[in-house]
Amino acid sequence: MDALSIDPLIASSATRTVVCCGSGGVGKTTTAAAIAVRAAESGRRVAVLTIDPARRLAQALGLEEMGNEPVAVPTVDTSAGGSLDAMMLDMKRTFDEVVLNHSTPEKAQQILANPFYQAVSSSFAGTQEYMAMERLGQLIAERVDGEPRWDLIVVDTPPSRSALDFLDAPKRLGSFLDGRFIRLLTAPAKVGGRAYLKVVSVGMGAVSGAMTKVLGAQLLTDVQTFVAALDTMFGGFRERAESTYALLQDPGTAFVVVATPERDALREASYFVDRLAEEGMPLAGLVVNRVQMTYVPSVSAARATAAAEVLDGEDDRNGWSGADSAALLRVHADLADHAARHASAIGRFTASHPDIALVQVPAAAHDVNDVDELRSIGDSLAGV
User: Fold this and answer.
1) Domain ArsA/GET3 Anion-transporting ATPase-like spans what residues (predicted)?
2) Is residue 198 in some structural domain?
3) Which domain CATH number covers 258?
4) What is the span of the domain harbouring residue 84?
């Protein structure tokens, strides 16, 4: 197994996009931010797109808030010529911008005012993944004086039940748009004329009646109006999503899978690593966060516990009682036992994926509070 070092990855001008992915709660957002800070301070023009709404990351970067538009991060060291812009995905605003940019003003207002659209753009299953893909495509395409605005984009993928949702967004969108229910709803808008009405009026009336009973007349009307208005715009949306998906397969993209040294998180990471290989996605390696390290490996948990039992009740020695020393040994025993479990879990992963480069980030006492702590995580990612 090779060690993963983030420095060669971010130093290469060939690397244009780094995608941090994995299951929820494993530190993807912090990892993405640490990579972005390190890349910017090494001289690259970086944008980091996070999906995590927690304010603590904005505060750690020295920002009052983050939104859908990139904001310069003032706390990074730009002496090497780099820069860092940060943003947080606002899925509804991104969806609204897609509507405004890819429809006529009249049709855009019709869509934005539609009650079904307002529900879909805020809470429809998969909307966050679709919009993350859309926003990434926008950032990649952005130019200043004909040149890419950023030479590296770091992406924190959406937290979801399945880490595969981000990759599946274009395919799921295509299936949704090509589904029989959607074709049925759009058929009256696509095909007109008396001949059409004579053929399908009876059948469509029966279907509409059935759907009206299930959905209600007003909701069915809202859905039909929404789908008809989005028909041509969504085609372009799908093409852009598929184009962005193709860019993710490009050698200029590097996927970094993030996990914690727990069985479920590493199982999800293993599944994701296998899926990336199936899809031909370029994998840089695995980051294992919050690993308990042992700094006195010669003293195992068992030895520390045994020594603690011997020291219990002994007289004071140099100001320390036997009970004090025993308490410290038991703390060490707990940490050593925790470290052994983590090492075992990581060992099982490496046994099944011996060719995957891996780096471990030590567990910290608290959440990241400032850019110095992000730099410290960056050091760990670089193997420093």
Assistant:
1) 16-291
2) no
3) 3.40.50.300
4) 6-166+241-292+363-381
Q: Domain count for the chain, please give it.
A: 2
- 262 and 329: one domain? no
| Residue 268 covered by a domain | yes
Q: How many CA atoms does the CB half-sphere of 192 hold within 13 Å?
A: 2
The answer to whether residue 38 is domain-embedded is yes
User: What is the rounded distance in angstroms from the CA atom of residue 171 to the CA atom of residue 119?
Assistant: 22
Examine residue 159 and state whether it is found in any structural domain, yes or no. yes
Same domain, 122 and 57: yes
Its pTM stands at 0.81
Non-local (6+) Cβ contacts of 195 within 8 A are none
One digit per residue, the tens of pLDDT, for the chain of length 384 reads 689 999 999 999 999 999 998 888 899 989 999 999 999 999 999 999 988 766 777 888 989 888 899 999 999 999 999 999 999 988 888 888 888 888 888 888 888 888 878 877 776 666 777 788 888 888 999 999 999 999 999 998 876 655 567 677 666 665 555 555 555 555 554 444 444 334 333 443 444 444 444 445 565 666 667 766 665 566 676 677 778 788 888 999 999 999 999 999 999 899 889 989 988 899 999 999 999 987 666 666 666 666 656 666 565 555 555 666 667 777 767 777 888 899 999 999 999 999 999 999 999 878 888 999 999 999 999 988
- Same domain, yes or no, for 286 and 322? no
Give me the helices (H) in 259-382, please: 263-279, 301-311, 322-352, 371-381
